[in-house]
Amino acid sequence: MKLKQHFFAVGTMRTLLMITALTFGVGVASSASAQEVQITGPLAGQPAVRHMRVFRAGRFNVMPTIGYTLQDEFARALFVGLEANYHFLDWLGIGIWAAYNPANIDTDLTSQIGATGQTTDRNRLSLPQAGPSAAHPGAGFSHQIGHIRWGVSAHLMFVPLRGKLSLFQSIFVDTDLYIFAGVAVWGLEERAYTDTATAGCGMATATGQSTDQCIQSQLAQASRVAPAPIFGVGLSLYANSWFGISLEWRATVFSWNPSGTDESGHNQHGQAGSGFPDGVIDGNDSRTTFTHMVQLGLIFNLPPDQAITE
Ligand SMILES: [Ca+2]
Predict the structure, then answer these.
(1) Is residue 228 within a helix (H) or strand (E), and if so which, with residue range?
(2) How far is the CA of 148 from the centre of ligand 1 (A)?
(3) What are the average pLDDT values for consecutive 10-residue runs of the chain, which has 310 residues?
(4) Domain total of the chain
(5) Cα–ligand 1 centroid distance for 60 (angstroms)
(6) Are 205 and 173 contained in the same domain?
(7) Contacts of residue 25, Cβ cutoff 8 Å, sequence gap at least 6
(8) I want to staple 304 with a disulfide (CB 3.0 to 4.6 A). Which of 8, 119, 242, 253 is the partner?
(9) Are 175 and 160 in contact (CB under 8 A)?
(10) pLDDT for residue 276
(11) How far is the CA of 260 from the centre of ligand 1 (A)?
(12) How far, in Å, is the centroid of ligand 1 from the Cα of 24?
């Protein structure tokens, strides 16, 4: 009996000691870890990344570019260009871009209008001749549509994300994601000013065709410069300290007459750009379009050597 009591007492003591030790130990551990994070932890006061390769801060990048507009109604633009950026910080820079479109690339819609379009007395000014004819092989709808011939822009660039991409966990490339916004001027070519009377588009010839004069008005183009906002987003992939590629999407919004047709005139209040076709092709026939493009660039960073953070 006495023995049993002794064992009971020892067991109780052990249990109490364990509970005390656990409580005390956990208490000590939790207060210590909280202090380590705040004051003495290994990451306290350290930079987010060590030995980071600096691709942008204090450097220029020069990029030959090639771009292609998307979802155009009547003609696509193929932009061959050059872009240059300078970065004050790794995440902030300024830049300029200039590009020229050497090609007139008709969309399928333009080809279809050329093949199946009908010219009547009602639309003779808008479509003097649909496609090439024996008398006028060099005329047709594809000659009256508008083209973006060149563009120049200045932008502010932000680089909110950077890091590494891995391909099948075997190829790693340094990368960054950038967004930019700025102002552009576009060199536009549109059907030149004309009207039904001066173009002689009021009546057909004896064979039911448009007059030579009317068809000449289809071929006359005028150039002008349109200012517009420009913005976009891109991804840079760096092969080494001085070379990489960029994949970019950029967009702009401006008003023009891409079809070269008589779309509208003044309404009954004299407001331009509304109302019915007025027998005149001019700025009132312009409408606002969203033009966007994809662009591939070759990145050359200067100076070629890059800084590496501590
Ligand atoms: Ca008009």
Answers:
(1) strand 221-238
(2) 21
(3) 47 54 46 54 77 84 96 96 94 96 95 95 94 93 97 96 86 92 98 94 90 95 97 94 95 96 82 79 92 97 84
(4) 2
(5) 47
(6) yes
(7) none
(8) 242
(9) no
(10) 80
(11) 10
(12) 88
Is 295 in a helix, a strand, or coil?
strand
Predicted pLDDT of residue 55: 84
Q: Are 291 and 229 in contact (CB under 8 A)?
A: no
Q: What is the DSSP letter of 142?
A: G
**Using an 8 Å Cβ cutoff, are 298 and 286 in contact?**
no
Cα(220) to centroid(ligand 1), Å: 16
pLDDT at 27: 43
Look up the pTM and report it: 0.80
Ligand 1 centre to CA of 194 (Å) is 9
Based on the fold, state whether residues 166 and 261 are members of the same structural domain.
Answer: yes
CA–centroid distance, 46 to ligand 1, in Å, is 66
Say yes or no: 219 and 289 in one domain: yes
Report the distance separating Cα 131 and Cα 114, nearest Å: 4
Ligand 1 geometric centre to CA of 73 (Å): 19
3-state secondary structure of 7: helix
Same domain, 190 and 128: yes
Q: How far is ligand 1, taken at its centre, from the CA of residue 278, in Å?
A: 5
Tokens in use for 10?
């020892």
Interval between CA 121 and ligand 1 midpoint (Å): 16
For residue 195, the CA-to-ligand 1 centroid distance in Å is 8
Query: Rounded to an integer, what distance in angstroms lies between the CA atom of residue 230 and that of residue 301?
Result: 24
pLDDT recorded at residue 7: 46
Ligand 1 centre and the CA of 272: distance in Å?
9
Report how far ligand 1's centroid is from the alpha carbon of 218 (Å). 14
Alpha carbon of 127 to ligand 1 centroid (Å): 13
Based on the fold, state whether residues 93 and 150 are members of the same structural domain: yes
> Does residue 308 sit within a domain?
no
Residues 115 and 14 placed together within one structural domain of the fold: no
Q: Provide the CATH number for the domain around residue 293.
A: 2.40.160.20
| pLDDT computed for residue 15 by the predictor | 56
As a whole number of angstroms, the distance between CA 173 and CA 53 comes to 12
